[in-house]
Amino acid sequence: MNALGTVPGVSLGPAATPLQDAFADAGELLKALSAPVRVAIVTHLHESGPMCVHELVDVLKVPQPLVSQHLRILRSAHIVAGRRQGREVFYVLVDQHVAHIVADAVAHVQEER
Fold it and tell me: Once rounded to an integer, what is the mean pLDDT over residues 51-65?
């Protein structure tokens, strides 16, 4: 067994430990954040609070269908949630921990430059 609590060469099967389950869940979370547009969405929602799709389109300078596609991925990963107000859906971060992960990652790469 190595420091990660796994046996080298053994996959995370049905008898995975709670720690292995946490690693798998963390991997899925990071996968959901793996696109620059999604990193930008999380950053803007953290800094500006709730935003609707057209506000995100304006600030990100990308097409509306692309923003909607990325929001769908972030919703599926439970990173953002939509709240309807009249005809608009405003998106908010579900958990501020994710914003801190993103901010730390952005700060890290900026330090490397």
Answer: 98
